[in-house]
């Protein structure tokens, strides 16, 4: 379970594995029915076991599966148009707005059962008093949390808010040309100016310690995204919303997982522990550098 993105929720309490498994079993994923536009529910996070909770030591992995029908509006409109033409030719009359809407609903009901189905998974980890969601999209992360709360009958959780904003810390680091702690500047950054339509500068594959880069900050721009490397183990992009994007686990972590065994279960367990430990430590250090959690 190598997360490529991460949204962080703080948890005052973590449900135990047995309770979590029982509750998720009451909210399982079921495939789309004939007239369903989408369905979603909890599914096994690992392919080699049907268990809805993959527990490894003090960590728990879960997954929310979603299926949705892909039925382009252009397909519906074309089918409706063909029927309108046929009615007008065969019956010698025009088709009004109300009848067009009825035809659209009829066509949709006929096409929906045959529509292509797209499946996606949103994975998450319970680790060290946090819920880590493998997504940087607020809508996906909050949807998974909402489904968890619905299944559990409630779950206290809050988004990551620190005393000092991520943007303020990233802007300071870029201005002085180096990060703090075990963090190093990478080669990606996004900066924004002020105003109703703020200008934005995207920097890629450039030396972030260059005077030209610091000059953008001196001109009043703030950093909205910053590429960082933590402890020579994890490369990622930190955002102003305290989400992690484009997470890459460097060779030392990949090799550590491979050394735990070569079967699917051992590799999955090792990767879950490695991801949980490293992301938790990385996030904890960021929070400390931002002055701690905002209560």
From TrEMBL:
GO terms for biological process: DNA recombination. Keywords: Coiled coil, Cytoplasm, DNA recombination. It comes from the Bacteria. Pfam families: RdgC. It is found in: Cytoplasm, Nucleoid. InterPro entries: RdgC (IPR007476). Belongs to the RdgC family. PANTHER family: RECOMBINATION-ASSOCIATED PROTEIN RDGC. This is Recombination-associated protein RdgC. It comes from Eikenella corrodens CC92I. The lineage of its organism: Bacteria, Pseudomonadati, Pseudomonadota, Betaproteobacteria, Neisseriales.
């Amino acid at each position: 379970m190598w997360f490529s993105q991460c949204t962080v929720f703080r948890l005052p309490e973590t449900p135990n594995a047995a309770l979590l498994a029982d509750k998720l079993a009451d909210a399982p994923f079921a495939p789309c029915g004939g007239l369903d536009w989408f369905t979603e529910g909890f599914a096994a996070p690992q392919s080699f076991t049907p268990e809805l909770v993959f527990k490894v030591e003090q960590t728990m992995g879960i997954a929310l599966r979603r299926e949705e029908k892909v039925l382009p509006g252009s397909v519906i409109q074309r089918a409706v148009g063909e029927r309108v033409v046929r009615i007008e030719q065969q019956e010698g009359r025009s088709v009004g707005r109300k009848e067009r809407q009825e035809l659209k609903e009829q066509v949709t009901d006929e096409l929906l059962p045959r529509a292509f189905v797209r499946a996606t998974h949103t994975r998450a980890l319970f680790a060290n008093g946090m819920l880590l969601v493998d997504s940087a999209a607020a809508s996906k992360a909050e949807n998974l949390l909402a489904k968890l709360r619905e299944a559990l009958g409630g779950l206290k959780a809050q988004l990551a808010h620190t005393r000092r904003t991520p943007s303020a810390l990233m802007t300071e680091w870029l201005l002085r040309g180096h990060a703090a702690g075990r963090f190093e500047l990478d080669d990606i950054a996004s900066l924004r100016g002020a105003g109703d339509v703020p200008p934005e500068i995207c920097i890629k594959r450039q030396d972030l310690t260059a005077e030209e880069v610091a000059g953008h900050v001196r001109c009043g721009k703030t950093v909205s995204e910053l590429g960082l490397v933590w402890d020579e183990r994890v490369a990622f992009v930190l955002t102003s919303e305290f989400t992690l994007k484009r997470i890459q686990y460097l060779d030392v972590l990949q090799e550590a997982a491979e050394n735990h065994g070569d079967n699917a279960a051992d590799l999955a367990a090792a990767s879950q522990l490695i991801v949980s430990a490293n992301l938790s430590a990385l996030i904890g250090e960021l929070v400390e550098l931002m002055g701690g959690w905002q209560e």
